[in-house]
Design a protein that fits this description.
single chain, mainly beta, 16-stranded antiparallel barrel, two-stranded antiparallel sheet, 13% helix, 37% strand, signal, Carb-sel_porin_OprB, Carbohydrate porin, OprB_sf, OprB_Porin
């Protein structure tokens, strides 16, 4: 396996070095004001006039971030993102003079709870260090349906640091960005008590512990080539959500089948999902020199042990079973941001090959809560290599003429997995989010979404066979599991999110054993 991994990594780096140059990658989807903002972002010197332009761009006076809304990676790819400021929106607060905000108005309108004490955060950003952080929690309970009544709470605290190597080192050329993300998770999930195949609480899982979420070097070589290598996860860059209004569109929902990616790809393969980090690399090629077209390849270590409590800071290939090799083609159109110009549309088509050796689906029937005894006579075998693919579509449906900060976006996806090994070979998600539910609440959202998975028919037919032969007493044949979610995202300040919601789950566990379940849930987030 190591030989395969090394060859894949060497190929990615080789292509990068052949095509790369020292020019800065400047996508046409960059947010913020053009001209002076971009000049300040690419220079180590910031004049007072430039600072005012940067302040208007938000992010505590840091250079405006390139919003690669269709194809870009996200530092913290889960709910709680602060919506980006539109071109016509009120400027970010002036430089903070002390430990506390200059006024209550500034406290409400700053991007993070701690603001910019003594201007230190702005100073760090000007010198190449961007700091981000968040507290986030999920709470959910089922008043009826499922195996039993229960309520659960889980939370996560995250800290991200991005280092602009050009500014830090003072070199005259673009040197890329070094990403660091660490996080800690606590609490319990509701999925096992229902039980369901896709957790209704996206923040729970991957080991309730402190762990490394990202440690990588990302480089925009020129208008045509972008790369990243290090400890990363596939969820950031393959079958990932597009970004609308500066936030993750899929993660306007709590159900883990929707956020942060169509969940079946992680169930069916070695796809590396947030918050785990795997040795990996990817290359993105933009044939037209802009973000309209994308050709993308990657290579990631497959490690079934990485989500263990003791493996939060594991950064090696011990325990790896193979290499996850995805590719993706993308098409994007849209304006400079989601507040002006053409409305955003994205199409992504991708697939993967996983070199790992795994049991076929008969050896994984425990996922459906089927006892091991049911597999005694089943044709269990091992399979070398898994494959699958996906199709994604999203579009901004409308933007209010009277207030461009209010609009509506839609998404849909279809994911397919290897029928020999896939737990859910067919998986569908769809959703719609309305930003700006009322004229006085331009950043509040109302979202309606759904997910549906279909169990592998091989397992269904096997259990039905046992039932017909009198050996299936107490067994339930899996068919499908569906869920729908409706929520309201209330943002009393830019840094605080409160999102109550309802979920309805049909056939928990993909079987007709328990009654359909209704969940009442609440997500909340504080951005630091």
């Amino acid at each position: 396996m190591c030989g395969t991994w090394q060859k894949a990594g060497a190929a990615a780096i080789g292509i990068t070095l052949m095509l790369g140059s020292r020019a800065t990658f400047a996508q046409s989807t960059a947010s913020g004001s053009p001209g002076v903002v971009q000049a300040a972002a690419s220079s180590g010197d910031v004049t007072p006039a430039q600072r005012q332009e940067l302040l208007k761009a938000g992010n505590f006076g840091a250079p405006a971030r390139n919003e690669q809304r269709a194809f870009g990676s996200v530092p913290i790819p889960i709910p709680g993102d602060v919506f980006s400021r539109g071109a016509s929106e009120q400027a970010a607060p002036e430089k903070q003079k002390g430990l506390f905000p200059n006024s209550w108005h500034d406290f409400v309108n700053q991007d993070g709870f701690f603001g910019d004490p003594w201007g230190a955060r702005s100073w760090l950003a000007d010198h190449g260090v961007t700091v981000g952080g968040r507290y986030f929690q999920d709470t959910a309970g089922n008043p009826f349906g499922g195996k039993s009544r229960a309520a659960r709470y889980a939370d996560e605290e995250a800290l991200s640091l991005d280092f602009d190597l050009k500014k830090l080192t003072g070199v005259a050329f673009n040197a890329g960005v070094l990403h660091f993300l660490t996080l800690a998770r606590q609490g319990a999930g509701l999925g096992n008590t229902l039980p369901v195949i896709d957790s209704p609480m996206e923040i729970y899982g991957a080991g309730e512990t402190m762990r490394l979420g990202r440690l990588s070097w990302e480089m925009h070589w020129n208008n045509y080539v972008q790369t990243e290598v290090g400890e990363i996860n596939t969820e950031n860059d393959f079958e990932q959500s597009s970004t609308y209004w500066g936030a993750n569109l899929y993660c306007q929902f709590q159900n883990n089948g929707i956020c942060g990616m169509p969940q079946s790809i992680a169930m069916n393969s070695g796809y590396g999902f947030y918050p785990t980090a795997h040795p990996g690399a990817w290359i993105k090629l933009y044939p037209a020199g802009n973000d309209h077209y994308l050709v993308q390849f990657g290579a990631y270590s497959v490690d079934p042990t990485i989500s263990g409590v003791r493996n939060g800071w594991k950064m090696n290939l011990h325990g790896a079973t193979g290499t996850f090799l995805p590719f993706q083609l993308g098409w994007h159109q849209g304006g400079n941001d989601d507040y002006s110009g053409p409305m955003q549309t994205n199409v992504k088509i991708g697939g993967y090959w996983d070199t790992s050796e795994v049991k076929n689906v008969y050896g994984q029937m425990g996922t459906y809560n089927i006892p091991a005894s049911a597999a005694q006579d089943a044709p269990v075998s091992k399979v070398r290599g898994r494959f699958g693919g996906w199709f994604q579509f999203d579009r901004m449906l409308q933007r209010d003429g009277a207030d461009p900060h209010r609009g509506t976006a839609f998404f849909a996806s279809f994911t397919w997995g290897d029928p020999r090994t896939a737990i859910a070979p067919y998986f569908v998600t769809a959703g719609i989010t309305r930003k700006g539910t009322f004229a006085s609440r331009p950043d509040d959202t109302i979202s309606l979404g759904m997910k549906a998975l279909w169990a592998n028919p091989k397992v269904t037919h096997w259990i039905e066979h046992l039932q017909h032969t009198g050996r299936g007493a107490g067994l339930y044949a899996p068919h499908s599991e569906e869920a729908i979610e409706l929520n309201y995202g209330y943002r009393p300040t830019r840094w605080l999110l409160l999102r109550p919601g309802l979920q309805y789950l049909w056939s928990p566990g993909a079987v007709k054993r328990y009654k359909d379940a209704m969940l009442i849930d609440l997500e909340s987030s504080i951005s630091f």
